[in-house]
Design brief:
Layout lengths: L8 E5 L11 H13 L4 E4 L11 H15 L4 E5 L5 H14 L3 E5 L8 H12 L6 E5 L1 H4 L5 H7 L5 E6 L4 H11 L4 E4 L5 H6 L4 E4 L6 H12 L3 H17 L7 H9 L16 H13 L6
Parallel strand pairs: 1-2, 1-8, 2-3, 3-4, 4-5, 5-6, 6-7
Helix pairs in contact: 1-2, 2-3, 3-4, 6-7, 9-10, 11-12
């Protein structure tokens, strides 16, 4: 039976703005308003782009609560709960459920990794214990372990596993997974650069980094794909392609927070271990922004 997707279109993996002493919650609320005005369908809070590994439990919970409060009736809310400690992931998932989030995003366990059979147990353990729908997150470049098509097929049988943020960049493996799982798993691109080809193969949108800066453009790209106009979508993608590329010229979210500060959005510094962008790569980012018509301060 087909699973109703948590959202379709563009979901912003939102950055976390900081002051010198903590999270800038007032600025964060402004960023959510900006996303809604730009046509974004959903917000992913406390994801990688939000620098979630650096958050205290209090910061994680407050960001989750504020996002639900601001987005209610406007945009769907997905909370990053991934951890290599399964019990810790469950704790965060229960909090997301309790405050009314629409979904949770759970990454493959990094560092201690596990086997494919271990992945099934890790994700199922949490999905068994909450009712809020789960999105799996496959990003082997960061975690050192990827989800294989046969594992997706097994996980698709779980009624509370709704879909996948697929950021492996392996389009052929994604196509095989789609052929095996059908509508038992919903898929979203986890890379801005893969949005058009993945949506051509049945993905329902993108969990985007670029939409922090250009929400209306990313929303339009998804709308064109959802309408089946892949010629127009390709043309729109070609216009955005260099900016998508430059947002990953250094480790995410270094370039996107740099870009947002250059746009005058004042999202503050990165937290260690992330550091300021190198001048050489920053110059390339600025050049790409100007080519797209984005003004910098």
């Amino acid at each position: 039976m087909a699973k109703k997707p948590i959202f379709t279109g563009s979901c912003t993996a939102i950055v976390t703005p900081y002051t010198e002493t903590g999270v800038d919650y007032a600025k964060y609320a402004e960023l959510i308003d900006m996303q809604y005005a730009g046509g974004t369908s959903a917000i992913l809070v406390c994801g990688t782009t939000g620098e979630n590994p650096t958050h205290t439990a209090e910061e994680h919970n407050r960001l989750t609560e504020l996002t639900v409060e601001k987005c209610k009736g406007k945009m769907k809310v997905i909370v990053g709960v991934g951890a290599n400690n399964t019990e810790h992931a469950l704790e965060q998932a229960k909090h997301a459920e309790a405050v009314g989030a629409d979904g949770i995003l759970m990454v493959t366990p990094y560092y201690n990794k596990t086997t494919q059979a271990g992945l099934v147990q890790h994700f199922s353990y949490v999905a068994d214990r909450v009712s809020v729908p789960m999105i799996l997150y496959n990003v082997p470049s960061r975690t050192g372990i990827g989800i294989k098509p046969a594992t997706y097929k097994e996980l698709s049988k779980h009624p509370n596993i709704n879909g996948v943020k697929e950021a492996s960049g392996n389009i052929a493996e994604f196509a095989l997974t789609r052929s095996m799982c059908g509508d038992e798993l919903n898929f979203w691109s986890g890379n801005d650069s893969d949005t058009v080809p993945m949506m051509a193969l049945g993905a329902l949108g993108v969990i985007s980094v670029a939409s922090n800066c250009i929400p209306a453009d990313v929303a339009k790209l998804c709308e064109l794909c959802m309408a089946g106009d892949f010629k127009a979508a390709s043309e729109e993608y070609f216009r955005l392609a260099d900016f998508f590329d430059k947002l990953f010229i250094e480790t995410n979210p270094i370039p996107v927070k740099t870009a947002m500060n250059l746009m005058g959005l004042n999202v503050g510094k990165l937290r260690l271990p992330l550091i300021d962008m190198a001048e050489g790569t920053k110059a390339k980012l600025i050049e790409s922004m100007h080519a797209l018509g984005i003004q910098t301060v």
